[in-house]
Automatic annotation (TrEMBL):
SMART domains: HATPase_c, HisKA. It catalyses: ATP + protein L-histidine = ADP + protein N-phospho-L-histidine. The lineage of its organism: Bacteria, Pseudomonadati, Thermodesulfobacteriota, Desulfovibrionia, Desulfovibrionales. PROSITE patterns: HIS_KIN (PS50109). InterPro entries: BphY/WalK/GraS-like, HATPase_C_sf, HATPase_dom, His_kinase_dom, HisK_dim/P_dom, HisK_dim/P_sf. CDD domains: HATPase, HisKA. Pfam families: HATPase_c, HisKA. This is histidine kinase. Keywords: ATP-binding, Kinase, Nucleotide-binding, Transferase, Two-component regulatory system. It comes from Solidesulfovibrio carbinolicus. Gene3D superfamilies: 1.10.287.130, Histidine kinase-like ATPase, C-terminal domain (3.30.565.10), PAS domain (3.30.450.20). Signal peptide: none annotated.
Length: 383
């Protein structure tokens, strides 16, 4: 009988020895270490006979986390339950997942065997993930606060802009009315009358730009809703050329409108559905850019080209856009070589084109020349 018990014990120990995790067996009555497998002996040394709490955890008394009572019946026999838990061992500063169960040992004693799997790297990864999640939560909270502050600042800017527009409109309305008074009540020479008319047009243009500033803000924020009405692009091109021809930037340069590359016939019209308060400043910004880029004696053309489904507004001028900004020309604040340039003219033109369901592109394929092409969905007919 004793030889059979010894054989059973040897087989059990051999089985435990081949398992690549730490395994130790403890007498549940005395806490004596009955057996250590090879993996545990390499870490703990030959510690059979010592107290498990001292050998494994370097404690002087039974561990507070001891699960032996949970594994026994009231009579002190194995109850078949398995305890599984994670534990940090201060002795070697490692984490382990422990699996424990009570059983009968070949010599008749009731023992507890414990399998300890090192999960320190897993715990470290979990801790890093937890820290990353905590940091992300903090950043998200900070970002939410910044977004709220940004929204408040944007609302404040819109409110201030609205007040500024209101305060500027009163004196501007008087400036618009005065030229008409001069024209109707004074016998002005033709040249002076022309200058006064240009002043009135410039004042109207300024009023339109004031009204447009809120529209551009809404375009940037995605709050703008287009309410299209027929806009005659031929008339728009001719009015823009007439108004800007008298400006200092146009001196020494030729500025004219065209229809499909040729002269504009009397009464010609090309209508698209759009907003004149957007399309007018859009074209003006592009023509101003063309005039500023064109050398003295150069020619700037605003060409209306009608296609089957779209109408193109093409602003052509001599001079080239610097290669360094060609790919970013329609981005915000992009400018190069212009003393008073803000980098907003082409950007706002792109916003206006997009709001109409159109596109804007730069054609720098001809050396020494530049063309900006705005393509808008066609909604009318050329007459």
């Amino acid at each position: 009988m004793q030889s059979g018990s010894m054989l059973e014990s040897a087989l059990l120990k051999t089985h435990f020895d081949v398992i690549p995790f730490g395994i130790y067996v403890v007498d549940v009555a005395t806490y004596e270490v009955v057996f250590l497998n090879r993996h545990s002996r390499e870490n703990l040394g030959p510690a059979e006979g010592g107290k498990c709490y001292k050998v494994v955890y370097d404690n002087d008394a039974p561990c507070l986390h001891c699960r032996i009572p949970e594994l026994l019946t009231p009579d002190g026999l194995p109850n078949g339950r398995t305890a599984v838990y994670d534990l940090y061992n201060e002795r070697d500063e490692r984490w382990a997942q422990i699996q424990e169960k009570a059983m009968g040992w070949p010599d008749g004693r009731v023992v507890k065997y414990a399998i300890a799997v090192d999960i320190s790297e897993l715990k470290e990864t979990q801790n890093r993930l937890a820290e990353a999640h905590a940091e992300l939560a903090i950043r998200n909270k900070d970002l939410a606060g910044q977004n709220t502050l940004l929204r408040q600042n944007m609302d404040l800017r819109e409110h201030v802009d609205r007040i500024a527009r209101h305060d500027l409109k009163a004196p501007l309305s008087a400036l618009i009315g005065l030229p008409q008074v001069l024209l109707e009540n004074y016998d002005l020479p033709p040249e002076a009358a022309h200058i006064v008319s240009l002043m009135e047009q410039a004042a109207h243009s300024m009023l339109d730009m004031l009204n447009q500033s809120l529209v551009l803000y809404r375009l940037e924020t995605g709050d703008f809703v287009l309410s299209p009405r027929p806009v005659d692009l031929v008339d728009l091109a001719m009015r823009t050329c007439s108004r800007l021809s008298s400006m200092p930037m146009a001196r020494g340069r030729k500025l004219h409108a065209a229809l499909a590359g040729g002269p504009v016939p009397a009464g010609a019209r090309v209508e698209v559905p759009g907003d004149d308060l957007l399309l007018g400043p859009m074209l003006q910004n592009l023509v101003v850019n063309g005039l500023e880029a064109s050398p003295e004696g150069g020619d700037v053309e605003v060409d209306v080209v009608v296609g089957e489904e779209n109408v193109a507004l093409v602003v052509r001028n001599q001079g080239e856009v610097p290669a360094a900004i060609r790919d970013r020309m329609f981005d915000k604040y992009v400018t190069l070589g212009k003393r008073s340039g803000t980098g907003l003219g082409a950007y706002s033109a792109a916003l206006a084109a997009k709001a109409h369901g159109g596109t804007i592109e730069l054609d720098a394929g001809v050396p020494g020349r530049t063309a900006v092409i705005v393509t808008l969905p066609r909604g009318g007919a050329a007459l």
